[in-house]
Design brief:
Layout lengths: L1 E5 L10 H12 L4 E3 L4 H4 L9 H18 L2 E12 L2 E8 L9 E3 L2 E3 L1 H14 L5 E7 L3 E8 L2 H10 L11 H18 L6 E8 L10 H10 L4 E6 L3 E8 L5 E9 L3 H11 L2 E5 L2 H14 L4 E11 L2 H13 L1 H7 L5 E3 L2
Parallel strand pairs: 2-15, 4-7, 4-9, 9-10, 10-13
Antiparallel strand pairs: 1-3, 3-14, 5-6, 7-8, 11-12
Amino acid sequence: MSGFGFAHPWAFAALLLIPAAMAWRRWRGRTPVWLVPYAAAWTGRGRGGATLPWRVAALYAAMALLTVAAARPQRVDQREEVVSRGHNLMLAIDLSTSMLAEDYRGRDGPINRLEAIRPVIRRFITGRPNDRIGVVVFAARAYTLAPLTTDHAWLDRQVAAIRIGMLEDGTAIGDGLGIALAGLEAGRARQDDTSAGQFVVLLTDGANTSGTLTPPQTTAIARYRKVPVYTVGAGRDGMVPFPIFDDAGRRIGTRQFPSSLDVEALKTMAAETGGRFLQAGDVKALEAAFRAIDGARKTEFRVRTRRVTTELYPWALGPALLLLALAAPVWGALAGRAPRLVAP
């Protein structure tokens, strides 16, 4: 927001000096006259000894501009700056073969767990522009797909490209969390720690079946580093539809397979680290889970107002000094009751 005003508006009272000066000039104008040949050529006066009118006008204009300059005209800009600090967060996504289970329903029918989760994750990333976000994917082993970054457009493309089958099959939940914690630690080492906090979102649909680290081990590490872990259980337990493929990778049908989610292990991971376990058995529950995480760890914004003042008085002071220079002979006429030089 911008505005115009005066720092010393009371200075305009000096404008009353202009009519006083006019009256004083008339009174001081009654002085003896000396007739000097050709005096007008070097005094700046007209015939009859009168001061040229434009010099008098210049004097009064200079006085008015000096008054304006003394009032200090200013342009004031109120600038609001949003000051915020984002979180550092890592997403650990299960890409085991069981994520192909089609127990979610999309607009056009059944969809597998990854296809149900992917758009929710992408919206979650887009909705947190102030955060540094990284992604870990895991199956039998865990890998860093993307380190902590604020380039969310690039990160979105990486998430859009992940596929089930790109990793050896298995479910290394412990390794997935361990790599995510290492990513947070590496991010803190590379940059100044200006984050508002850090946390992990771990999304899986099964129980830990492989990997080097166990969930209790990595849970202890997260607890020691004070990193909350939000665990999201995808899909549902029991018999679920699962696609069948031939040796060439072509889908040839669907069969029912058992699904088992280690809910107790995920609840323990969340409870011991200060996070939360969320069950996401359908699309609505999945979206609600990520909304809950977003609300629990949302960046706080503070608004700082800064006032910027631009002084404008030089625009009045400069012309005033120039006009005073042009009106200098008038000052000589008013300086005293000396005889005026007038051309005959």
